[in-house]
């Protein structure tokens, strides 16, 4: 380990052990150089390392501030084996695994986890698919299958799923992944080296940020406006940074549910082409868009510049863990070689279930129905939150989420713990930002609650905010 890495490791442990907390400013460069008996440039390199890992933010004008404290759960005793870890490239933010615990929570108002409303699922169709699979195709269902995905499943996805998104691709352009998180991880393994610049919207999907950071990327965030990111800001960022890739969600983006206008989409694609930077287009919520809408990948000239990823987690069921990457066959081949090392292939049962559903002949009806339901829920939350004193981001018309602002003095992370004990769950905003500007914002997933539950839950949230602010020794930062 080099000197700066040793220092970064010590500071990292201090952060994890609570010596430094979120919002704290670290000691000055000079003080730290004295403390660790190293040069000031070594301290700066250590800070850069910690910034890349997502623990602190700093720039030439302001001292480093702690923005993220991955918790080592107190219930887990530390064994000496965890001390063997020689690398520090993978930060241990527990954001995604915490979200997964929220999925199992019995809280009455669970606005935390982003998933479809399972009561809307086409259970009869799924049941008959499962019955057929388990009784007539037993051997196939329980076997290994090709790493890139089962051929007939790739065909069904190309025809029935991507076709409906106006993407016309042959199955050899597809890799079936274990959720689109794996798609992001595979693409990052192939493309990102420590220190590379990745441009994303800000706020954006926290899981993507977590993966890019874990691969050592430095993230540049571009503000999300009511029509998506501003192309002029993107151009400015591209001209100033030698950028490795751009990650975008053009439709109903997580966490704001803002969609890009047609003009924004075209302008961003033109920029990516002229700066020779690939775009990862994440279309997880694209099924909510009107039938004629086009993903970036369907635009003229996009084939060589846009890698498209999608998932069945939002349209069908996240527990299936079926996602996909659409790209040129040579790239798909490279990604398949990486995937074989991780999980060999995506679960055969899940893939065949997705295929059966796609071929059931009823998916248009289902998509129409869920679009209507989710639009109504977004509408309800969008009207209610400002009335309760919480401004929301943008003007979403559909999607799973609203991104809402709590009083500035409040740390959403600290309030999250308080509210969770009182039956209300949400996702703290900090994790969705490329810096700490969203520490008093929250993401509320409203796709799983009917309008009545949204009313009751949000009213309760509002009461909790008041009680929390008034509580003696209130924890707002
Ligand atoms: C924009 C976006 N991309 C990807 C994912 C990951 O989904 P999965 O790995 O379940 O496919 C999510 C989940 O919330 C998401 O919101």
From TrEMBL:
<keyword id="KW-0805">Transcription regulation</keyword>
<dbReference type="GO" id="GO:0030170">
    <property type="term" value="F:pyridoxal phosphate binding"/>
</dbReference>
<comment type="similarity">
    <text>In the C-terminal section; belongs to the class-I pyridoxal-phosphate-dependent aminotransferase family.</text>
</comment>
<keyword id="KW-0238">DNA-binding</keyword>
<dbReference type="InterPro" id="IPR015422">
    <property type="entry name" value="PyrdxlP-dep_Trfase_small"/>
</dbReference>
<dbReference type="Pfam" id="PF00392">
    <property type="entry name" value="GntR"/>
</dbReference>
<feature type="domain" description="HTH gntR-type">
    <location>
        <begin position="1"/>
        <end position="69"/>
    </location>
</feature>
<dbReference type="InterPro" id="IPR015424">
    <property type="entry name" value="PyrdxlP-dep_Trfase"/>
</dbReference>
<dbReference type="Pfam" id="PF00155">
    <property type="entry name" value="Aminotran_1_2"/>
</dbReference>
<dbReference type="InterPro" id="IPR036390">
    <property type="entry name" value="WH_DNA-bd_sf"/>
</dbReference>
<dbReference type="InterPro" id="IPR000524">
    <property type="entry name" value="Tscrpt_reg_HTH_GntR"/>
</dbReference>
<dbReference type="GO" id="GO:0003700">
    <property type="term" value="F:DNA-binding transcription factor activity"/>
</dbReference>
<protein>
    <recommendedName>
        <fullName>HTH gntR-type domain-containing protein</fullName>
    </recommendedName>
</protein>
<keyword id="KW-0804">Transcription</keyword>
<dbReference type="GO" id="GO:0003677">
    <property type="term" value="F:DNA binding"/>
</dbReference>
<dbReference type="InterPro" id="IPR036388">
    <property type="entry name" value="WH-like_DNA-bd_sf"/>
</dbReference>
<dbReference type="GO" id="GO:0003824">
    <property type="term" value="F:catalytic activity"/>
</dbReference>
<dbReference type="InterPro" id="IPR004839">
    <property type="entry name" value="Aminotransferase_I/II_large"/>
</dbReference>
<dbReference type="InterPro" id="IPR015421">
    <property type="entry name" value="PyrdxlP-dep_Trfase_major"/>
</dbReference>
<dbReference type="InterPro" id="IPR051446">
    <property type="entry name" value="HTH_trans_reg/aminotransferase"/>
</dbReference>
<keyword id="KW-0663">Pyridoxal phosphate</keyword>
